[in-house]
Amino acid sequence: MKSNRRNFLLMAVCAVSLSACGSGGDSSSNSGESVKPSTVDGAIEKPSLKLGFIKLTDMAPLAIAKEKGFFAEEGLNVTLEPQANWKVLLDGVIGGQLDGAHMLAGQPLAATIGYGTKADLIAPLSLDLNGNAITLSNRVWDQIEPDLKKNADGKPVHPISASVLKPVIASYKEQGKQFKMGMVFPVSTHNYELRYWLAAGGIEPGYYTPGDVGGTVGAQAALSVTPPPQMPATMEAGTIDGYCVGEPWNQAAVQKKIGVPVITDDEIWKKNPEKVLGLREDFAEKYPATTAAMLRAIIKAQQWLDVDGGKNRAEAVKILARSNYVGADEAVIGASMTGQFTFQAGDTRPAPDFNIFFNDYAGYPFYSDAIWYLTQMRRWGQIADDQSDQWYFETAKAVYRPDLYLAAARKLADEGAIPADSIPETDGFKDQQSGFIDGIVYDGKAPNAYLAKFPIGLKKGQKVTASGVN
């Protein structure tokens, strides 16, 4: 395994830092056979663990695993420690101050290919599906709201296309100003969702040059990093005109009456993968039984969150509201965590799929999910050069570890703790996925063909320089 891993990493570093290691590629290594679970035996090697998280509602599986005793059931004494921002969290895992963390899906992928901090990280579990939204300031909302299509009840028709922002952006340009939006980290789901939404509406969100973490080359709407809890205050101050963030920070804008969420991420990509459990690869190798126990505890917590139509969500809201977890008002957390989503006062809509933690195989780390993130990194220039399809497959398989997930989940199923049919039989790739706001279908087994479909985004052979795309 070490030898294969080194080959994967050498290929990844070569491809990103120098030039493409191939162009056409194929999926010949994807035989269609189901992923096999790892074999884990022995006693827990490291019973005391420290896990990091950011104050967002999708850290819920970690909080529930601790508060409902699932970590303890697996013989683990776990401390959960909030982190100031995603960079601090990432550095904590890489440096060993944290044993693992609630992590952006793009972070272990970016670290593995050497975008930003270089490190050997893995994602053996997906924490959830969906959970983000895009919010606009009141001043922007007031400009676009009169022209929105309305339902019979007078409320806006959803989903709302980013094309409604074009007159606002044009007005800003005439005034010599830049339209600005916030997201949480350069390789965050939020960055890619916001870019996807803008591009689907015909708006250029900008490109990254090598060594650049701003990503504003050619941008009609400039995106910048803001830590999640600071989003509402930053928008209220006028520094940004809107943002993409996880909950409860969209609902906080509603409660403060400073902004209006215009679209949830399940309207951008239905049942999209969100956060992962991020670990160092050497941690999982040194402590295999500990890793399996940790995964089992979190899987049980995920099931608890979704069981019986979300009957436990109200209790989860109370737990998350504590200052040592998310630390927001129960009403704010509950406004999106309990099967509904509030866009404005008087406009609360059913949102049964907004937070999914266990259902729909939410915990399984699909290779195709990893490949989607990698395609978006290439689409916007974070991966500077063309890569072969095979490069995408191998990079995904070096980071996403369904074999570790299966080892934990199948033991739980054998014990009757989770249903056997909650574990997919799969080669690690989802079927072709629709449900995107632009109507484009995603096939994880054909990443380059997928990239070629986008009207906005880098095409084969294109690179980004400070002067633009060429």
TrEMBL record:
PROSITE patterns per the UniProt record, alphabetical: PROKAR_LIPOPROTEIN
Gene3D superfamilies: Periplasmic binding protein-like II
Subcellular location: Endomembrane system
UniProt cross-references to CDD domains, sorted A to Z: PBP2_NrtA_CpmA_like
Organism: Parasphingorhabdus flavimaris
Signal peptide extent: 1-22
Main location (coarse class): membrane
Keyword Hydrolase found: no
UniProt KW Signal keyword: yes
Lineage, top ranks: Bacteria, Pseudomonadati, Pseudomonadota, Alphaproteobacteria, Sphingomonadales
Designated name of the protein: ABC transporter substrate-binding protein
Keywords, comma-separated and alphabetical: Cell inner membrane, Cell membrane, Membrane, Signal, Transport
Pfam (any one): NMT1_2
